[in-house]
Structures are given as structure tokens and as C-alpha cells.
């Protein structure tokens, strides 16, 4: 869903995605919200930096070493957007 408009995150699509996650992984992995992102923090080898994503999710701005990232701007864009879609399909904006 990277790069899609938030308006395309319909309630039915959210519920289908949650159902797929529950079926494939289990209910413990059920997403609480969806965060729209135009880009993800990628390393030079093309891997997504899960460490940075966890910091963003926890709103922890102490990111440590970011020298391996291709585009640091993606990290700051994620912090600045902080737009979430709740499970019920309603948009919730969290101010930082």
C-alpha cells in the first residue's frame, strides 16, 4: 500500500487486510493502524530498515546511526506525516 492515497484505504480494504494477517500469521499480529508512506527507509543494499521503522512507530527520535540509509528524508517524512487509519476505517491524525 506504499504510495497510495489515504482515500483508497476504505474500511472494507482495511478489514480484508486485517483478516489476511490474522489468517496467515495469527491474531497477535493484527495491525492497530495503517500509516501511509510515500517511501520507506532503505539501506544501500535495498533492505528496509526495520530498526528505524520501530523507532518511528514508538515516536522515538533518537534514531542512532542513519549513515547506511539511501534517503534520510523518508524517515523525517514518516515522522511528519503520522497519519493513521483506525481499524474502523476512520482517519486519525496524531500530532507530534
Characterize the main sheet.
3 strands, antiparallel
Quick check: average pLDDT? 79
From the N-terminal CA to the C-terminal CA, the straight-line distance is: 23 Å
* Fold-level CATH name: GMP Synthetase, Chain A, domain 3
Q: From the coordinates shown, what is the CATH architecture?
A: 2-Layer Sandwich
Question: What would CATH call the class?
Answer: Alpha Beta
Q: Spans with pLDDT under 50 lasting ≥5 residues?
A: none
Described by the principal axes of the CA atoms, the overall outline is elongated
The value of Rg in angstroms is 14 Å
The count of helical stretches stands at: 3
User: Can you count the beta strands?
Assistant: 3
Helix and strand composition category: alpha+beta
Oligomer: single chain
Helix content: 25-40%
| Strand order of the biggest β-sheet | 1-2-3
Number of domains: 1
The arrangement of helices and strands along the chain is HEHHEE
Strand content: 5-15%
Give a verbal description of the structure.
With 96 residues, the chain is of the alpha+beta class. The chain has one domain: GMP Synthetase, Chain A, domain 3. It is built from three helices and three strands; from the N terminus they run αβααββ. It has helices at residues 11-24, 50-57, 73-81, and strands at residues 33-35, 83-86, 91-93. A three-stranded antiparallel β-sheet has the order 1-2-3, with no helix packed on it. A hairpin with a 4-residue loop joins strand 2 (83-86) and strand 3 (91-93). The longest helix has 14 residues, at 11-24. It is elongated and about 40 Å long. The two termini are 23 Å apart. 8% of the residues are buried. The mean pLDDT is 79. InterPro entries: AMP-bd_C_sf. This is AMP-binding enzyme C-terminal domain-containing protein. GO terms for molecular function: acetate-CoA ligase activity.
Amino acid at each position: 500500500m506504499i504510495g497510495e492515497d489515504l482515500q483508497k484505504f476504505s474500511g472494507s480494504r482495511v478489514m480484508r487486510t486485517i483478516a489476511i494477517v490474522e489468517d496467515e500469521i495469527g491474531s497477535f499480529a493484527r495491525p492497530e493502524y495503517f500509516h501511509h508512506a510515500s517511501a520507506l527507509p532503505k539501506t544501500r543494499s535495498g533492505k528496509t530498515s526495520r530498526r528505524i521503522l520501530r523507532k518511528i512507530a514508538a515516536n522515538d527520535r533518537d534514531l542512532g546511526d542513519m549513515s547506511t540509509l539511501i534517503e534520510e528524508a523518508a524517515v523525517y517524512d514518516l515522522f511528519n506525516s503520522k497519519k493513521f487509519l483506525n481499524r474502523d476505517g476512520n482517519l486519525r491524525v496524531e500530532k507530534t
